[in-house]
Amino acid sequence: MKTILGIQIPENLADLDNDALKALASSLRTAIETAANGDVDLDVLAEIKAARDIRTEVREALTERQAADEALEAERQAVLAELADEDPEDPADEDPADEDPENPDDPADEDPADPEGDEATKASTYKPTAKAIRQENGDGDPAPTPDAEVESYGSYAEAGFVSTSASNGVDAGERFASMKQLGQALTDRWDTIRGASDGKVAVAKLNGRFTDAQTLDGDAAANVEKLGGPDPLSPRARKAVTAAMCAPATPTYELATTSSTARPVKNSLAVYRPARGSVSVYPTPKLGDIDDEIGRGIWTKADDADAQAVKNACATIPCSNSVVYDLYGIYRCLTVTNMLSMTFPELVEAYLNRLGALTARLGDSTLLDAMIGSVNTKQLTRSGNSFGAAINLFETIIDSVAIFREEERYGDQQFDAWMPRWIVPALQHDVMNMRRTSGSLRDRLPSRSEIEAMLRDVGVDVTWTLDFAENWETVAPAEDGQALPELPTQINFIMSPKGNFRALDRGELSIGVANGNIYRDNASNTKNQFTIFQESFEGLMDLGATNYEVEISGVCLRGTQTADVDALECAGS
Fold first, then answer.
1. Per-residue pLDDT reduced to its tens digit, 125-181
2. Euclidean distance between CA atoms 37 and 262, whole angstroms
3. What residue ranges define each of the domains in the chain, with the CATH number in brackets?
4. Pairing mode, if any, of strands 377-383 and 547-553?
5. CA–CA distances in Å: residue 53 to residues 3, 29, 47
6. What predicted TM-score, i.e. pTM, was given to this entire model?
C-alpha cells in the first residue's frame, strides 16, 4: 500500500472490484484538482503526475472489465436468441418418417397446448426474460411466433434490464424480473453510496436488439434497399425516410468543462501563511534613501595635512513606518436544486467549472492590481516607434533591465516579469511579417519556448498571465457576424527583483455537511436545494524593493524592421 496526495493506493489494482476502482478514480480526480489549484512545488507536481498516471490505469482497467462484461453478455444474449428461435414442439419441424404409429403415447405426438403435457417439454421452451416471466404469469403480450428471426422489443420492460453487479438478489449479468425489482435495486444502491462519492455508479444496463433490416452497414446498395429502395420518390422510400427522420433526437448530456481554473500569477509567487489577518513589512532601504553627502567620502593627502578638515557625517538609520498588507477573501458559491443535481449533474459540473474559472480570474487580476498599486512600484510609459512589436518589446525590456540594475546597483541577477499571454501570438505574428531569406515557414514562426529563452537571455523570467490588471488593454471578444478583432496595440508588463513579491495564503474555507462541500440548512431544505460554497483567504506582500510597471503604447504587428542604410540619425542630434 502506498500513499499519493493523501490517498492510499493498493499495490495490485486487479484485487479491487469495480465499485472500489470507481471510488478510487473519483478520489484521485478530487485530490488532483485540489492539489493543482493549491500551492504547487516540484514534489507536489510529481505526486500530481503520479496520481494522474494511476487514475489513467484505473480507468483503463474499468474499460477492459466493461468490455469483457459486454462481450460475455453478448454471448449470453446470442445463446438465448438461438434458443428463442427454436421450437421443438412445432410439428412442422418434425420429420413425418420419424413418427411411430405403434406408440401413440409418444410425447412428440401430444398437443403442445395441452395443459396436461409433459413438464419436461414445457420447461425446455422457457426463456428467462422479463417478457417470458410475464407470459408465464398470464399477463403481457403473447409469445413471439417461431418464425421471428430476432425478438423485437416494444418497451424497456420487455427488453429486460440486466444487473451490472450483484444487487437485491440478482447476480451480475442476470435480468431483473420486473421494474419493481429494478427500482428496489436502485434504491438499495443509492443507500450504500449516498454522500460518499461524486462518481457515477452503474446498476443496470439495457442492450438493444436489431434485425438485419434495421441495421445499416458498409454495403451502400443494401442500405438504400433497407431505406425503401433506389427511388427516393416512391411511397415506400418516403415512408422509410420519414420514419427515420421523424424519430426523436437522442439527447447528449455530456457538457464541456474545459475553462481553465489555473492561477499562474499566484503560482509564480512564493507563498507564506500569516499567523493572523495581516502582515507588516518594514520597507527595504534603497540607494536613494541615503543622502549623497553623508556616510561616505574620500580623504585626500591635503585633508590629512589640514587640521580643520573633518570627514562627512555618518549616515543614520531613520525610523520609518511599516507597510501593512491585509488578507482578503475570494469566494465562490453556487445554489443548486436537488432535482437538477439528480437529473442533470453534468450541467452542475459545467457551471462549477465556469464559476471556478471566473473566480481564478478574479484572484489573479486582484494580485496584478496589488502589484501595480504597491507603494514601491513605478509606473512607466514608452511609445512604440516605427518598428514592429517584437523590436519594441525587446528593446523596452532590455532598457528596463539595464536601468533597473543601474538604479540600485544590482548585479547580473534575473528579474521576475508578468505579461499577458496574448503577447506570444502577437510576437509570432510580428516576426512572421518580417523579411526573411529562408523559404521555410517554420523558420518564420518562433515557438513559445524560444521567446521565453530570448527573454531569459536579456534578464527576465516571464510568467504568462491568463488575466489582466485593471489598467491593461484586454483582448476584444469576437462578435458574431463581425470582423475578427485585432490584437491590442498596447503592451503592459510588470517587473520586479526576483522574489520581491510574495503571496499570502491563510488557506481555504469550505462550508459543507455533505460530500463536495455541499451546504445544507433548514431554509435550503424547505426549498429542496443546497449551496456549494468555497472561499480562499489570500493577499500580496511586497518586501520593499523597487518594481516597474511598463506600458508600451502604439505597437504595430506588421513586422517592420531596420533596413540597410548609409547613415543613422538619432533623435535630437
1. 444 444 444 444 454 444 444 433 444 444 444 556 778 777 667 777 787 777 777
2. 7
3. 1-86 (no CATH), 127-209 (no CATH), 264-290+319-435+442-474+486-553 (3.30.2400.10)
4. parallel
5. 14, 11, 10
6. 0.55
